[in-house]
Amino acid sequence: MRCLITSARPYDRAFLDAANHGRHELVYTDSALNIRTAAMAQGFPAICPFVDDTLDAEVLRIVAKHGTRLLVLRSTGFNHVHLATARELGITVMRVREYSPYAIAEFALALMLTLNRQLHRAYNRVREGNFLLDGLLGFDMHGKTVGLVGTGKIGTALARILHGMGCNLLGYDAQPSSACQELGVRYTTLEELLGQSHIVSLHLPLFPETQHLIDSERLAQMRPGAMLINTSRGGLIDTKALIDALKGRHVGAVGLDVYEEEADIYFRDHCDDIVCDDTFERLLTFPNVIVTGHQAFFTREAMETIAETTIKNLTDYCEGRGNENLVDAI
Ligand code: NAD
Protein backbone atom coordinates (compact mmCIF):
# COMPACT_ATOMS: atom_id res chain seq x y z
CA MET A 1 0.00 0.00 0.00
CA ARG A 2 1.21 3.52 -0.77
CA CYS A 3 1.55 5.37 2.52
CA LEU A 4 2.69 8.92 3.27
CA ILE A 5 4.64 9.15 6.53
CA THR A 6 4.13 12.74 7.76
CA SER A 7 6.25 14.61 10.34
CA ALA A 8 8.91 11.99 9.64
CA ARG A 9 12.23 12.32 11.43
CA PRO A 10 15.31 10.32 10.34
CA TYR A 11 14.71 7.85 13.21
CA ASP A 12 11.14 7.19 11.96
CA ARG A 13 12.51 6.27 8.55
CA ALA A 14 15.15 3.96 10.04
CA PHE A 15 12.71 2.00 12.22
CA LEU A 16 9.86 1.88 9.66
CA ASP A 17 12.11 0.78 6.78
CA ALA A 18 13.58 -1.96 8.98
CA ALA A 19 10.08 -3.23 9.86
CA ASN A 20 8.63 -2.91 6.34
CA HIS A 21 10.89 -5.32 4.38
CA GLY A 22 9.66 -3.63 1.19
CA ARG A 23 6.03 -4.75 1.72
CA HIS A 24 4.49 -1.28 1.43
CA GLU A 25 5.52 1.80 -0.52
CA LEU A 26 6.48 4.23 2.23
CA VAL A 27 7.06 7.86 1.25
CA TYR A 28 8.50 10.15 3.90
CA THR A 29 8.03 13.87 4.42
CA ASP A 30 9.23 15.97 7.34
CA SER A 31 6.25 18.30 6.78
CA ALA A 32 3.50 18.15 9.35
CA LEU A 33 0.00 17.51 8.10
CA ASN A 34 -2.20 20.58 8.50
CA ILE A 35 -4.59 22.75 6.53
CA ARG A 36 -1.72 24.24 4.45
CA THR A 37 -0.12 20.89 3.59
CA ALA A 38 -3.16 18.57 3.38
CA ALA A 39 -3.05 18.49 -0.45
CA MET A 40 0.13 16.40 -0.21
CA ALA A 41 -2.22 13.46 0.49
CA GLN A 42 -2.90 13.31 -3.27
CA GLY A 43 -2.21 9.74 -4.43
CA PHE A 44 -1.88 8.27 -0.94
CA PRO A 45 -4.65 5.89 0.17
CA ALA A 46 -2.90 5.73 3.55
CA ILE A 47 -1.31 8.39 5.74
CA CYS A 48 0.83 7.67 8.78
CA PRO A 49 0.74 10.74 11.08
CA PHE A 50 2.33 11.46 14.45
CA VAL A 51 0.95 13.37 17.45
CA ASP A 52 1.98 16.78 16.09
CA ASP A 53 -0.01 16.39 12.85
CA THR A 54 -3.38 18.13 12.63
CA LEU A 55 -6.24 15.77 11.91
CA ASP A 56 -9.23 18.01 12.49
CA ALA A 57 -12.44 17.90 10.43
CA GLU A 58 -11.15 20.36 7.82
CA VAL A 59 -7.91 18.47 7.15
CA LEU A 60 -9.73 15.12 7.07
CA ARG A 61 -12.14 16.42 4.42
CA ILE A 62 -9.22 17.52 2.22
CA VAL A 63 -7.27 14.26 2.51
CA ALA A 64 -10.47 12.25 1.88
CA LYS A 65 -11.06 14.30 -1.27
CA HIS A 66 -7.54 13.33 -2.38
CA GLY A 67 -8.33 9.63 -1.88
CA THR A 68 -7.03 8.84 1.61
CA ARG A 69 -8.97 5.99 3.23
CA LEU A 70 -6.70 4.95 6.10
CA LEU A 71 -4.86 6.69 8.94
CA VAL A 72 -2.26 4.56 10.70
CA LEU A 73 -1.31 6.64 13.72
CA ARG A 74 2.22 6.24 15.10
CA SER A 75 0.83 6.84 18.59
CA THR A 76 -1.36 5.35 21.28
CA GLY A 77 -3.32 8.56 21.86
CA PHE A 78 -5.86 9.56 19.20
CA ASN A 79 -7.21 12.73 20.81
CA HIS A 80 -5.83 14.73 17.84
CA VAL A 81 -8.12 12.95 15.33
CA HIS A 82 -11.66 14.22 14.71
CA LEU A 83 -13.16 10.75 14.86
CA ALA A 84 -16.74 11.73 14.01
CA THR A 85 -15.56 13.25 10.71
CA ALA A 86 -13.31 10.27 9.97
CA ARG A 87 -16.30 7.96 10.43
CA GLU A 88 -18.54 10.18 8.29
CA LEU A 89 -15.92 10.17 5.49
CA GLY A 90 -15.29 6.42 5.73
CA ILE A 91 -11.66 6.87 6.84
CA THR A 92 -10.41 3.97 8.94
CA VAL A 93 -8.27 4.99 11.91
CA MET A 94 -5.74 2.57 13.40
CA ARG A 95 -3.25 3.25 16.17
CA VAL A 96 -0.50 1.56 18.14
CA ARG A 97 -2.59 0.34 21.05
CA GLU A 98 0.39 -0.60 23.17
CA TYR A 99 4.12 -0.07 22.97
CA SER A 100 6.43 -0.36 25.89
CA PRO A 101 4.49 1.15 28.79
CA TYR A 102 7.90 0.85 30.50
CA ALA A 103 9.33 3.62 28.29
CA ILE A 104 6.83 6.16 29.61
CA ALA A 105 6.72 4.82 33.18
CA GLU A 106 10.52 4.90 33.43
CA PHE A 107 10.59 8.43 32.02
CA ALA A 108 8.02 9.58 34.61
CA LEU A 109 10.33 8.14 37.28
CA ALA A 110 13.31 9.94 35.70
CA LEU A 111 11.42 13.26 35.99
CA MET A 112 10.51 12.53 39.62
CA LEU A 113 14.09 11.67 40.60
CA THR A 114 15.62 14.55 38.65
CA LEU A 115 13.31 17.09 40.30
CA ASN A 116 13.63 15.53 43.73
CA ARG A 117 17.44 15.31 43.74
CA GLN A 118 17.90 18.46 41.59
CA LEU A 119 20.06 16.67 39.03
CA HIS A 120 19.34 19.34 36.41
CA ARG A 121 20.86 21.98 38.70
CA ALA A 122 23.67 19.77 40.03
CA TYR A 123 24.80 18.98 36.45
CA ASN A 124 25.30 22.68 35.67
CA ARG A 125 26.81 23.53 39.04
CA VAL A 126 29.54 20.90 38.88
CA ARG A 127 30.46 21.91 35.33
CA GLU A 128 31.02 25.45 36.61
CA GLY A 129 33.19 24.23 39.48
CA ASN A 130 30.54 24.82 42.15
CA PHE A 131 30.39 21.88 44.54
CA LEU A 132 28.10 23.48 47.14
CA LEU A 133 25.14 21.33 48.12
CA ASP A 134 22.97 24.24 49.27
CA GLY A 135 19.60 24.13 47.52
CA LEU A 136 20.02 20.52 46.37
CA LEU A 137 18.32 18.86 49.36
CA GLY A 138 15.99 16.04 48.28
CA PHE A 139 13.82 13.48 50.04
CA ASP A 140 13.76 9.68 50.26
CA MET A 141 11.23 8.23 47.84
CA HIS A 142 10.89 5.30 50.26
CA GLY A 143 7.80 5.79 52.41
CA LYS A 144 6.41 8.69 50.34
CA THR A 145 2.90 8.63 48.90
CA VAL A 146 2.57 8.72 45.12
CA GLY A 147 -0.82 9.25 43.51
CA LEU A 148 -1.34 7.63 40.12
CA VAL A 149 -4.10 9.37 38.17
CA GLY A 150 -4.88 6.66 35.63
CA THR A 151 -3.79 3.09 36.26
CA GLY A 152 -3.98 1.56 32.80
CA LYS A 153 -0.90 0.06 31.13
CA ILE A 154 1.49 2.94 31.93
CA GLY A 155 0.11 3.68 35.40
CA THR A 156 0.43 -0.02 36.28
CA ALA A 157 4.03 -0.21 34.98
CA LEU A 158 4.89 2.81 37.15
CA ALA A 159 3.08 1.30 40.16
CA ARG A 160 5.36 -1.77 39.87
CA ILE A 161 8.50 0.39 39.88
CA LEU A 162 7.36 2.62 42.77
CA HIS A 163 6.19 -0.39 44.78
CA GLY A 164 9.76 -1.71 44.49
CA MET A 165 11.05 1.61 45.86
CA GLY A 166 8.87 1.36 48.96
CA CYS A 167 6.35 4.09 48.08
CA ASN A 168 2.77 4.12 49.31
CA LEU A 169 0.50 4.16 46.28
CA LEU A 170 -2.88 5.79 45.76
CA GLY A 171 -4.86 5.30 42.55
CA TYR A 172 -7.65 7.10 40.73
CA ASP A 173 -9.23 5.39 37.74
CA ALA A 174 -12.74 4.72 36.42
CA GLN A 175 -11.72 1.05 36.11
CA PRO A 176 -9.43 -0.02 38.97
CA SER A 177 -6.79 -2.56 37.97
CA SER A 178 -6.49 -5.82 39.89
CA ALA A 179 -2.71 -5.87 39.16
CA CYS A 180 -2.43 -2.50 40.95
CA GLN A 181 -4.60 -3.63 43.82
CA GLU A 182 -2.31 -6.66 44.27
CA LEU A 183 0.63 -4.23 44.51
CA GLY A 184 -1.17 -2.42 47.33
CA VAL A 185 -2.50 0.55 45.32
CA ARG A 186 -5.41 2.00 47.28
CA TYR A 187 -8.08 3.48 45.02
CA THR A 188 -9.66 6.67 46.21
CA THR A 189 -11.28 9.88 45.01
CA LEU A 190 -9.22 12.37 43.01
CA GLU A 191 -9.63 14.90 45.83
CA GLU A 192 -8.21 12.55 48.46
CA LEU A 193 -5.39 11.44 46.15
CA LEU A 194 -4.39 15.06 45.50
CA GLY A 195 -4.59 15.96 49.18
CA GLN A 196 -2.41 13.06 50.37
CA SER A 197 0.21 12.54 47.66
CA HIS A 198 3.75 13.86 47.84
CA ILE A 199 3.95 13.16 44.09
CA VAL A 200 1.05 13.06 41.60
CA SER A 201 1.65 11.42 38.21
CA LEU A 202 -0.90 11.70 35.37
CA HIS A 203 -1.60 8.69 33.12
CA LEU A 204 -5.12 9.32 31.80
CA PRO A 205 -5.95 9.77 28.12
CA LEU A 206 -7.08 13.20 26.94
CA PHE A 207 -10.82 13.14 26.29
CA PRO A 208 -13.30 16.05 26.46
CA GLU A 209 -14.12 14.94 30.03
CA THR A 210 -10.46 14.90 31.10
CA GLN A 211 -9.52 18.24 29.44
CA HIS A 212 -8.12 20.51 32.20
CA LEU A 213 -8.79 17.82 34.80
CA ILE A 214 -6.05 19.54 36.79
CA ASP A 215 -7.40 23.09 37.01
CA SER A 216 -7.01 25.78 39.69
CA GLU A 217 -9.44 24.00 42.01
CA ARG A 218 -7.62 20.65 41.72
CA LEU A 219 -4.23 22.33 42.10
CA ALA A 220 -5.45 23.97 45.32
CA GLN A 221 -6.43 20.50 46.58
CA MET A 222 -2.85 19.26 46.18
CA ARG A 223 -0.72 18.80 49.26
CA PRO A 224 1.40 21.97 49.68
CA GLY A 225 4.84 21.49 48.15
CA ALA A 226 3.85 18.33 46.22
CA MET A 227 5.33 17.41 42.85
CA LEU A 228 3.22 17.06 39.69
CA ILE A 229 4.33 14.91 36.74
CA ASN A 230 2.60 14.80 33.36
CA THR A 231 3.81 12.35 30.72
CA SER A 232 0.32 11.82 29.30
CA ARG A 233 -1.20 14.72 27.34
CA GLY A 234 -0.73 18.44 27.92
CA GLY A 235 -4.46 19.20 27.82
CA LEU A 236 -4.96 17.39 31.13
CA ILE A 237 -3.52 20.45 32.89
CA ASP A 238 -4.70 24.07 32.74
CA THR A 239 -1.20 25.49 32.24
CA LYS A 240 -2.08 29.07 33.24
CA ALA A 241 -3.55 27.78 36.52
CA LEU A 242 -0.40 25.71 37.02
CA ILE A 243 1.78 28.80 36.59
CA ASP A 244 -0.30 30.60 39.24
CA ALA A 245 0.10 27.63 41.60
CA LEU A 246 3.88 27.70 41.03
CA LYS A 247 4.06 31.46 41.57
CA GLY A 248 2.06 31.02 44.78
CA ARG A 249 4.60 28.33 45.84
CA HIS A 250 1.76 25.88 46.44
CA VAL A 251 3.06 23.31 43.96
CA GLY A 252 6.61 22.27 44.85
CA ALA A 253 7.94 20.91 41.56
CA VAL A 254 6.61 20.08 38.10
CA GLY A 255 7.83 17.68 35.40
CA LEU A 256 6.12 18.02 32.02
CA ASP A 257 6.87 15.89 28.98
CA VAL A 258 3.75 17.23 27.30
CA TYR A 259 2.24 20.69 26.91
CA GLU A 260 -1.25 21.62 25.80
CA GLU A 261 -0.06 23.82 22.90
CA GLU A 262 2.94 21.66 21.99
CA ALA A 263 1.92 21.01 18.37
CA ASP A 264 3.48 24.29 17.16
CA ILE A 265 6.67 23.88 19.20
CA TYR A 266 7.74 20.28 19.74
CA PHE A 267 9.69 17.95 17.43
CA ARG A 268 11.31 20.91 15.66
CA ASP A 269 14.47 22.95 16.20
CA HIS A 270 13.59 26.53 17.19
CA CYS A 271 17.10 27.58 18.23
CA ASP A 272 17.25 30.40 15.63
CA ASP A 273 13.64 31.28 16.17
CA ILE A 274 11.56 33.16 18.74
CA VAL A 275 8.99 31.00 20.47
CA CYS A 276 6.01 33.32 20.85
CA ASP A 277 4.06 31.24 23.33
CA ASP A 278 4.46 33.30 26.52
CA THR A 279 2.80 30.69 28.71
CA PHE A 280 5.30 28.07 27.58
CA GLU A 281 8.22 30.47 27.99
CA ARG A 282 7.05 31.37 31.53
CA LEU A 283 7.12 27.67 32.47
CA LEU A 284 10.79 27.50 31.49
CA THR A 285 11.73 30.26 33.97
CA PHE A 286 10.96 28.24 37.11
CA PRO A 287 13.94 26.47 38.72
CA ASN A 288 11.60 23.72 39.99
CA VAL A 289 10.07 22.93 36.58
CA ILE A 290 11.50 20.53 34.02
CA VAL A 291 10.02 20.53 30.53
CA THR A 292 10.92 17.89 27.95
CA GLY A 293 9.69 17.74 24.36
CA HIS A 294 7.36 14.72 24.37
CA GLN A 295 10.19 12.22 24.52
CA ALA A 296 8.88 9.72 27.10
CA PHE A 297 8.07 7.18 24.37
CA PHE A 298 11.48 7.47 22.76
CA THR A 299 13.29 4.20 23.47
CA ARG A 300 14.65 1.71 20.94
CA GLU A 301 12.16 -0.94 22.08
CA ALA A 302 9.19 1.43 21.79
CA MET A 303 10.28 2.64 18.33
CA GLU A 304 10.61 -0.98 17.11
CA THR A 305 7.12 -1.82 18.35
CA ILE A 306 5.60 1.36 16.87
CA ALA A 307 7.16 0.55 13.48
CA GLU A 308 6.20 -3.14 13.51
CA THR A 309 2.62 -2.37 14.60
CA THR A 310 2.28 0.35 11.95
CA ILE A 311 3.35 -2.07 9.20
CA LYS A 312 1.02 -4.77 10.60
CA ASN A 313 -1.86 -2.25 10.60
CA LEU A 314 -1.18 -1.45 6.93
CA THR A 315 -0.98 -5.15 6.02
CA ASP A 316 -4.11 -6.13 7.98
CA TYR A 317 -6.07 -3.30 6.36
CA CYS A 318 -4.90 -4.35 2.87
CA GLU A 319 -5.89 -7.94 3.53
CA GLY A 320 -9.30 -6.91 4.93
CA ARG A 321 -8.49 -8.04 8.47
CA GLY A 322 -9.64 -5.94 11.42
CA ASN A 323 -7.39 -5.93 14.45
CA GLU A 324 -7.30 -4.63 18.00
CA ASN A 325 -5.71 -1.36 16.83
CA LEU A 326 -8.84 -0.14 15.04
CA VAL A 327 -9.81 3.01 16.92
CA ASP A 328 -13.51 2.36 16.35
CA ALA A 329 -13.06 -1.01 18.04
CA ILE A 330 -12.51 0.67 21.44
P1 NAD B 1 -4.59 2.95 29.03
O1 NAD B 1 -5.77 3.03 28.13
O2 NAD B 1 -3.95 1.61 29.27
O3 NAD B 1 -4.97 3.56 30.48
C1 NAD B 1 -5.75 4.71 30.65
C2 NAD B 1 -6.54 4.56 31.95
O4 NAD B 1 -7.30 5.76 32.13
C3 NAD B 1 -7.55 3.40 31.94
O5 NAD B 1 -7.31 2.56 33.05
C4 NAD B 1 -8.92 4.09 32.00
O6 NAD B 1 -9.87 3.35 32.81
C5 NAD B 1 -8.58 5.40 32.66
N1 NAD B 1 -9.51 6.47 32.31
C6 NAD B 1 -9.84 6.92 31.08
N2 NAD B 1 -10.70 7.96 31.17
C7 NAD B 1 -10.91 8.17 32.50
C8 NAD B 1 -11.69 9.10 33.24
N3 NAD B 1 -12.43 10.04 32.61
N4 NAD B 1 -11.66 9.04 34.59
C9 NAD B 1 -10.93 8.10 35.22
N5 NAD B 1 -10.17 7.18 34.58
C10 NAD B 1 -10.17 7.22 33.24
O7 NAD B 1 -3.54 3.99 28.47
P2 NAD B 1 -1.94 3.99 28.68
O8 NAD B 1 -1.30 3.13 27.65
O9 NAD B 1 -1.65 3.76 30.12
O10 NAD B 1 -1.60 5.50 28.25
C11 NAD B 1 -2.08 6.61 29.00
C12 NAD B 1 -1.83 7.87 28.19
O11 NAD B 1 -0.42 8.12 28.11
C13 NAD B 1 -2.25 7.80 26.71
O12 NAD B 1 -3.63 8.08 26.57
C14 NAD B 1 -1.39 8.84 26.06
O13 NAD B 1 -2.10 10.06 26.02
C15 NAD B 1 -0.20 8.96 27.00
N6 NAD B 1 1.09 8.58 26.34
C16 NAD B 1 2.12 9.48 26.36
C17 NAD B 1 3.35 9.15 25.75
C18 NAD B 1 4.54 10.08 25.77
O14 NAD B 1 5.50 9.86 25.00
N7 NAD B 1 4.59 11.10 26.59
C19 NAD B 1 3.48 7.91 25.12
C20 NAD B 1 2.40 7.00 25.15
C21 NAD B 1 1.21 7.36 25.76
TrEMBL record:
GO biological process, one term: L-serine biosynthetic process
Name of this chain's protein: Hydroxyacid dehydrogenase
PANTHER family: 2-HYDROXYACID DEHYDROGENASE HOMOLOG 1-RELATED
D-isomer specific 2-hydroxyacid dehydrogenase catalytic domain mapped to chain residues: 4-327
Pfam (any one): 2-Hacid_dh_C
Record bears the keyword Oxidoreductase: yes
InterPro entries cross-referenced by the UniProt entry: D-isomer_2_OHA_DH_cat_dom, D-isomer_DH_CS, D-isomer_DH_NAD-bd, D-LDH-like, NAD(P)-bd_dom_sf
Molecular-function GO terms, alphabetical: (S)-2-hydroxyglutarate dehydrogenase activity; D-lactate dehydrogenase (NAD+) activity; NAD binding; phosphoglycerate dehydrogenase activity
Gene3D superfamilies found in the cross-reference section: NAD(P)-binding Rossmann-like Domain
Organism phylogeny: Bacteria, Pseudomonadati, Pseudomonadota, Acidithiobacillia, Acidithiobacillales
UniProt KW keywords: NAD, Oxidoreductase
Family, as annotated: Belongs to the D-isomer specific 2-hydroxyacid dehydrogenase family.
Domain of life according to the entry: Bacteria
Domain D-isomer specific 2-hydroxyacid dehydrogenase NAD-binding: 109-296
Organism: Acidithiobacillus caldus
